Structures are given as C-alpha cells and as structure tokens.
Amino acid sequence: MTQPFLLPPLLTTPRNTPRRVGVELEFADLDAPSAAACVRELFGGTVTVENPHRCLVAGTRLGDFTVELDMRSAHPGKGGSKVLDPLRPLWGNIGSLVMPFEIATPPVTIDRLPDLEALASCLRGRGAAGTEASPLFAFGLHLNPEVARADGDYVLDHLKAFLLLAPWLRREIRVDPTRRLSGFIASFPLPYAAKVTDPGYRPGLGTLIDDYLADNPTRNRELDLFPLFAHLDRDRLAAALADPHVRPRPTFHYRLPNARLSDPGWSLAADWNRWVAVERLAADRPLLDRLGAAYRGAADGQALAAWPERIDAFLAERPDIGGGIHGDAPASGAADGPARQAV
C-alpha cells in the first residue's frame, strides 16, 4: 500500500494561498537528458538540453523542472570565467563519476506531492542510483516547505521542534555515514540546541537571527535557515556573511534525509511525514516547553544518548503528532481531524 503524505497543521501562507513545497533529489548512474525524459513523460512540457549535464523541462503541468550535475564548474556561466566555458563539458564528464545529478522540482502544493513519488519511481526504473548504492554517494533529499507565517515566534517554534526531534530523526532516517562525514548536514552544536530549546528562550526575530549566525556561521546544517532569514531580513544576513549560494526564499530548507533511490521500499512520503511531525510539535507551545525543559535536563546530565527512545515514547502517547509517520495514517477526510489527514 502506498504511504500517504500527511498534512501539517497550517496549510496556507501569509498571503492565504496554499502552501507549496520544493523538492531537490540527488542521484547517480542516470544522465540529465534521461532524467528530464522522465519528467516530460509524467508531466508533459518541453525539454531543453543546455549542455550534456544540464536540462530544463518547461511548461509541465506542475511547473518548470531543472536537472543538472551538482557541480557549478560544469555549467557555462556558473562559478568562474567564461574563458573556461569550452572546458566545462569535460569537467562535467569527470565530475559525473563522483558528483550527483540533482533534479529540482518547481514548488508544488502539498496535495500534489504524490505526483513526485511517481517521479522517484520513474528515475529508479531507469537505473538512477541513490545514497545506499555506493560508499561514495553522499546523496540527499532536500525538502523546502513554504512557511505559513513570517513572524519570529513561528520560526523559533519550528527551530525548537526540530532541535528536539533531530536525534530521533537521525536515527529514523539512518543518515548515511558518508553524508555525516561530508559536513554538509552537520548537527547543531549542543550548547546552541540547549539554549534554543530552553522554554525561557523567546527572543525577537532579529536576536534569533543574530544568535543563529553567531553559533552557526554556515549553511551546512541539517535544517538550513539561511534562505528563510535572507527572505525575512536580507540586510541583517548580508551584513554577517557573503555567500552566493544563499537565495532568499520563504521556506525552511530541510536537508537531512538520504536519497535512497536504489531502495524500492523507500518513499518521499516517509521523509515528508517526519517533517510534518516537526510542524505538528511546533504548533503546540506548552508541549514544546515541557519537552524543552526535559531536553535541557538530559543535556545537562549527559543523558542525550537515550533521547531518541524518549521521543519514541512521547510519539506513542501523542498520535496527533506521531500518528501516520510509519504509514498508519487514516485516509484524507478521516474523522480524526486535519492534523491526522493525509493526501
């Protein structure tokens, strides 16, 4: 049975439009034109092959897709002088031996996420390899959920919820060892996590951003807030760092999941549903405070090794937050209410 995509508590943006999610999926053993063909067959559109390592699929029923080698030096006009452009296909041929291709979807509404499951199946059917196919494949699935609000309390509650669930998420996902060693999805420093999860930590948005930048001067975090902070306060972020890779956008940038395309039992839904648990916890301020106090006590007592098991027990007691994460969600429209519905 196909696992459903659960719904978060808040479904609209500050503009009262349906929230959307962008997805980035990394893979190997399939070239850009073949991956673009999957997109066209499923969703229509027109394929443009810009070079052997980058394709665009425009005008699909979901929007515009990009498929490219995740290596800036392989693409003309990116990462250097145009004098080197004739050599870029060669760099791409070499880089494709160890670097992933990445397919970036347009932002889709949550009810269209099941369409992207079909895309993952198509890529797998054509031979795309995922994280587990080689010790060299530190490939990831990135989810970019659009925010429902733009105030500091909303952002802070989601950061608190993520930090409280992060040890459990890492265990559930079984984060690939190569990805952990790469540094691209580094955990938040424990002193910072303990500070933020403290129930008494309630700064305004400006101080929240300043504190985050002081303790996390890198976008290489399992939950990267740079794009969101650049959207909410561009000048503050620009004054603290200059990184051309940071694009302002009103989304969380969740980078932790593996891209296990080689595993026929893997689904996008499983990793999306784990993110929904973060949003559900973030929506319950009293519960955030209780778990935050418990996390602080465990951190002070050096007892965080058992924290994932404590989250297991917590989720078992709170099906409104944990229900459906392992595929036992009711169908959309079930009587349990919006927090338990799925698409």
Strand content: 5-15%
In N-to-C order, the SSE pattern is: EHEEEHEEHEHHHHEHHEHHHH
Structural class: alpha+beta
Main sheet characteristics = 7 strands, antiparallel
Mean pLDDT: 87
Number of E strands: 9
Radius of gyration over C-alpha positions, nearest whole angstrom: 20 Å
Residue share in helix = 40-55%
What would you call the shape?
A: globular
Low-confidence stretches: 87-97, 327-340
Distance between the termini: 14 Å
- Helix count? 13
Give a written overview of the molecule:
With 343 residues, the chain is an alpha+beta fold. The protein is 41% helix and 11% strand. It has 13 helices and nine strands. The chain has helices at 32-43, 88-95, 113-125, 152-173, 177-182, 190-197, 205-215, 226-232, 234-240, 268-282, 285-300, 307-317, 319-322, and strands spanning 20-27, 46-51, 54-58, 65-69, 101-104, 108-109, 141-145, 223-224, 253-254. Strands 1, 2, 3, 4, 5, 6 and 7 form a seven-stranded antiparallel sheet that branches. A two-stranded antiparallel ribbon has the order 8-9. A hairpin with a 6-residue loop joins strand 3 and strand 4. Helix 6 runs antiparallel to helix 11 (285-300) and helix 8 packs across helix 9. Mean pLDDT is 87; it is low at 87-97 and 327-340.
Write a short abstract of this structure:
By secondary structure, the protein is an alpha+beta fold.
